[in-house]
Amino acid sequence: MTLTLEKISAILLKNDLLKEMITPTGWHLTCVDLPKKEFSSVTYDSRKADANSLFFCKGLNFKVDYLISALANGLEVYVAEAPFDVSAKCAIIVTDIKKAMALLGAAFYDHPEKELKLVAFTGTKGKTTAAYFTHALLAKATENKTALLSTMNTSLDGKTYFKSHLTTPESLDLYQMMRQAVTNKMTHLVMEVSSQAYKTERVFGLTFDVGIFLNISPDHISPIEHPTFDDYFYCKRQLLRHSKKMILNSGSDYFALLKENCELLQTPYISYGRKNADYLVTSGQNKHFTVTSKNDELQIAADYSIQLAGDFNQENATAALLAAAIVGADVKSAKDALATARVPGRMDHLFNTNGASVYVDYAHNYLSLKTLLEFAQAEHPTGRVIVVLGSTGGKAISRRADFGKALSEHGDVVILTADDPAFEDPQKIAEEINAHITNEKLEVHFEMDRTKAIAAALALSDSADAVVIAGKGVDEYQKINGEDMPYEGDYFIAQRLIKENHV
After folding, report:
1. Phi/psi class of residue 310: alpha, beta or left (left: φ > 0; alpha: ψ in -120 to 50)?
2. What is the pTM of this model?
């Protein structure tokens, strides 16, 4: 895997991204009079840059000191949106560093995306669940030749998994992972595509074989993410423009707009949902459901079962069935894989020693929390819904008001606690959530030690109650003051406390 200055110039000129290439002898647009140079690595991490690297100066927090450090380690060529007052053999100045990085990263890794069937999920809730369901179906259909990039975990060989750092990786990392997946003989890749991935051009230039739009609700509204819902929704909708075929949830808000968008773009689409859809989902008993269609062109109409409770998870499974079928899977022969698929941190169900149900879920925005609490209310009509919840620091500020609203609508007791507070005071975050609670009957407690908060919720519960522990699922760290601090994980804490009979 290599990249030359000549190829870099050609790619950037073709995409109208090149301002100039600056050397000690002058400014250029092509490689005439430029030094011969071949790069054996591409990076945006100054600590990894050397004489053979193409270094990208990207990010709002980029400091010229990073570039100076890389140059001291032998770096000769950098890419940036403006020249720096440093001594380098060549500065490649571009109009958009993120777009340039995506295109040059794809070229450096020799376009691994062309060697994979790409399935991409977006939506406010359910991306990880639907991605895991699809991965299970395709893993069975392809004999474990399906890679996965999810919020929770990444697998590039279909067998081993490691913790993900971003829902959608930075473009250089994404193409490196794709190349590794191809090297590992993977034929398919299932991934989540976040709104930030389009906002920051992480997937610029990438076309997916099938895109799935699950749902939409306000989220990630903050000064450092999306300033408005309109911006958030627009970024999400870019998947429609960059997919060969779309799958749409007919029950999603703004479904009519999504259909219109596909039609204007001439992107073929299939709909699924409880009504007014190409594929209809009907709930059965004990986590069973049925998919029917008047024109079953994908041959998925059948009875299915999953391990997760909730109608919304049956809809996620239907989206997975459609996606897997579009990229070549015989889903009926793989339906046993769907029936046994487990999604870490999603709707894990435990029972307290007194018989109360305990639900552990990664729900971390209004739509996912509202759906989860509605489910808990319906399943436990004679009991209370007791919630353990916090909100992240430094981002998605709008969630604090959203959580207050969801709790007011569907909670009976809440213990507000810490959830990745970052550089903020978790007590103040909790107080902000509380300020948006309008239901005077809702009983509110504060406990910033999350383990103690879970223990308190279990202790408060009676046999008819539902305890909902929302936010972290099986995550084994808390982001505090810039560090990932070890954390046992909500599921494992609840499981241990119940086993130890401390409650």
Report:
1. left
2. 0.86
